[in-house]
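[job 4471] stage=fold_predict status=RUNNING
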Amino acid sequence: MKNLSVVLNSILLIAVVVLFVLHFSSEKVEGEGASEGSVKSAVDFPLAYINTDSLLLKYDYAKLLKEKMLKKEESSRANFNEKAKVFQQDLREHQRKLQNNGYLSLDRAQKEEQRLAKANQDLQDLNTRLTNELMAEQNKINTELRDTLMSYLKEYNKTKGYKVILSNTMGDNILYSEPGVDITNDIVKALNDRYNASNKK
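[job 4471] inference complete, writing structure tokens
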């Protein structure tokens, strides 16, 4: 009986050791499989990015729109500055007349002050209107460029098969990447080719 107990304990001990070994060796195999799966899923999940700043500097259509925007801004500034200059001259003339008693009556001086106050308000309104027009134009340009890029990326990605294409502005978002992940130059070349081809028609 005592021998039977020793034999059973020995068998149980061997069984526990075997289960212990099998348990930890299967965990290791599963762990290896999991890391291979992670690598495989990373490979199956291609990623790319575009440096938006470089794109806007090199894309011919973006350069054209920027040039048009600068001309419009200069025109608006010149228009405003011309009216502001006239207002400043009128204001100086009014102050000179007040100091030298140049008005025939108090009523005439008050009417000139009212006219200048309205001219000042008109100038402020013009500044606000021109600023709003420029902002609206800039938003329109930004939307047009974004739509052009998004439209092209759908076409571009049909052959490339990226799952995600990121935008990287001023190097803020991408801290590290492999060289082939930056597709900016490919996109710039393709967009310029399309833009130049559409201009030749």
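[job 4471] summary: Confidence is low (pLDDT under 50) at residues 26-43.
[job 4471] exit 0
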